[in-house]
Specification:
Largest sheet: 7 strands, mixed
Shape: elongated
CATH topology of the largest domain: Purple Acid Phosphatase, chain A, domain 2
CATH architecture of the largest domain: 4-Layer Sandwich
Number of helices: 15
Structural class: alpha+beta
Strand order of the largest sheet: 1-22-21-9-10-11-12
Number of domains: 3
Helix content: 25-40%
CATH class of the largest domain: Alpha Beta
Strand content: 15-25%
């Protein structure tokens, strides 16, 4: 057996050498290439074939017959196998696609209709757009494309068809011949800073919803005592009497106005709550003998009368205005533009009003733009129904970036004030400034809290985006004080030294009283008070302060208004009288 085995191996070895020598022939090499087989495999196939043919000799004719009977059939079987393999692979891909579609349909059944109506394209687009070209945006309009925010976003027809574009609806001061344009030099040095300084201002977020009732009571008590000292000095009052002690003579008492129930304040439900030094009790007040009064819950007042009958009401205390040294006098007036959100119509998430405002900024080239929220309005229908395709933070970032990029050619200073209606920001009052890491190095951008007191070229601006006019207007009661309700409310704010003097606040204002005591007060009467409201726009001079309600940039589905001011700090006159730095002001339709 070993001899026979060695003989066979010797025969196969000689045959392999012989066949390898024939493989040098071009025809044999061509057969190997055409049939995609190696030389060793070719030898084994020939040995098997020649064995079945009783030891067929290796000749050219035999090779042709071998190719026809063996190699061609083998090649056809390989091709059929490849086709079957390709078919199976295609079938697996289609089954995966169907499974993915079924999974998407299952997920869509748990999502909103707007999101469920979107189907991801599983085919290659005819004109694919590279990620690089998609990231390059040529204008703010592309940044604020409505399709990227909501699948059902369409331009508002009522906003597009609005009338009176650019119409001036309110004027104040010497507007005749006024040139509403900024300084000629690009980015001319405008001094802009917070009155209290960055260290003593609300500059970052804080923990809230931790306050105790005792802390709230302490803040309100200190408010009564602080304003009481000012009223005592202003009206030359020797001392205040306790409210709870009966007296036959006329007495003077200090306290805070409140209501005897949870309802709205009226002439029969007024209570006066005294501080701890005056007994700390609540007593009813009879207003029948007062010829005129204007009261609201939370107001600190001084009353003079007998027992519970008020005969004289002292609630006003004019406090110090801002004074600036002559070194801060500006040679040229400063043009300030003021706008308040929302910046989209109520029936669409298109930012067309904001784009129109950017066009106004580029045209008029103001020195400073005061932009108050909301930028992403929580009261918008599509946001309330979650019909957006991006996060609120992403929409806000693109909104701000479009403003910054769209006004680069102007070089104006941009001041962003948050609102409690901004769904992407903290729902608390006082409200910390926005956080924009991408714009921290941009010297044109200033982020301030709500509320705040700002210095613009030496002119003091009081800023708040909270609609205190609307809130106080619903709670205030008055008699014999005239019909100008706006001036009464504004005077209350200025004399109470607070950006939000109403207590208790309305339900939509989440008040933190410890922070309110530090950051919600007016350190002085500002030169200009910006106080946007849902109520009608106006510009008024109230006890030496120019109060501006620029309105909102959109009013429902139609366009709204914005404001513009021309300010210049002048040297103090010799007679010591205060001169308003607001030269002119207007409210204009967008």
């Amino acid at each position: 057996k070993q001899t026979i085995s060695c003989f066979i191996n010797e025969y196969l070895h000689l045959l392999l050498l012989r066949l390898r020598s024939h493989l040098l022939c071009p025809s044999v090499v061509e057969q190997c290439i055409c049939n995609r087989i190696q030389a060793d495999e070719m030898v084994l196939e020939w040995v098997a074939y020649s064995t079945t043919k009783n030891g067929l000799k290796l000749t050219m004719d035999a090779l042709e017959q071998f190719e026809h009977e063996v190699l061609n059939k083998k090649s056809k079987s390989k091709q059929s196998f490849r086709k079957e393999e390709t078919h199976n692979r295609t079938r697996d891909i289609h089954s995966l696609i169907r499974a993915e579609e079924e999974e998407e349909n299952l997920l869509d059944s748990y999502s909103t209709p707007a999101k469920g109506s979107q189907k991801r394209a599983l085919t290659t687009p005819e004109h694919p757009q590279s990620k690089r070209s998609a990231a390059i945006l040529a204008s703010p309009g592309l940044l604020l494309s409505p399709a990227s925010f909501s699948p059902s976003a369409t331009p508002s027809q009522k906003y597009g068809q609005r009338g009176g574009k650019g119409e001036v609806v309110v004027t104040f001061g010497a507007v005749q011949g006024t040139r509403w344009a900024g300084r000629k030099a690009l980015g001319a040095g405008v001094r802009l800073e917070l009155l209290e300084g960055s260290e003593d201002s609300l500059s970052s977020s804080y923990k809230y919803m931790f306050q105790r009732l005792r802390d709230v009571r302490n803040v309100l008590t200190e408010k009564i005592e602080e304003l009481g000292e000012g009223l005592k000095t202003h009206f030359n009052i020797e001392e205040f009497s306790p409210v709870s002690l009966p007296a036959q003579d006329s007495i003077t008492v200090l306290g805070q106005v409140c209501c005897d129930s949870n309802g709205k304040l009226n002439a029969q439900s007024v209570l006066l709550e005294a501080g701890p030094e005056q007994g700390g009790q609540q007593v009813p007040v009879d207003l029948s003998e007062l010829k005129e009064y204007s009261l609201f819950p939370g107001q600190v007042v001084v009353m003079e009368g007998m027992n519970t009958t008020g005969r004289k009401l002292m609630a006003s205390k004019l406090h110090e205005h801002s004074h600036t040294s002559s070194s801060h006098v500006i040679a040229e007036p400063t043009n300030v533009l003021v706008a308040c959100g929302p910046y989209t119509p109520s029936d669409s998430l298109t930012f067309d009003p904001l784009l129109d405002l950017i066009s106004v900024i580029v045209r008029d080239r103001p020195d400073v733009c005061l932009l108050l929220g909301p930028f992403v309005d929580s009261k918008h229908d599509q946001i309330e129904k979650a019909q957006v395709t991006e996060t609120f933070e992403a929409i806000f970032s693109r909104c701000v970036e479009s403003i910054v990029d769209g006004t680069k050619s102007v070089g104006c200073r941009l001041v962003f004030v948050p609102s409690q209606r901004d769904i992407n920001h903290h729902f608390i009052y006082p409200q910390p400034p926005f956080t924009l890491p991408n714009l921290n190095k941009d010297q044109r951008v200033t982020l301030v809290p709500d509320p705040c007191t700002l210095l613009v070229d030496g002119v003091t601006f009081g800023l708040t985006s909270t609609d205190i006019l609307f809130h106080m207007g619903a709670e205030e009661i008055s008699c014999g004080t005239g019909s100008d309700r706006f001036s009464r409310i504004l005077k209350h704010m200025l004399t109470q030294r607070s950006y939000y003097p109403l207590y208790p606040p309305v339900e939509e204002v989440n008040m933190d009283y410890e922070k309110y005591q530090s950051f919600g007060q007016m350190p002085l009467t500002p030169d200009v008070l910006i106080i946007p409201s849902e109520l009608r726009y106006f510009v008024k001079d109230v006890i030496g302060c120019v109060c501006v309600n620029p309105g909102r940039l959109t009013k429902g589905q139609v366009g709204g208004t914005y404001g513009r001011l021309l300010i210049q700090r002048s040297a103090a006159p010799d007679d010591g009288k205060r001169v308003s730095p607001c030269l002119a002001a207007q409210v204009v339709k967008i």
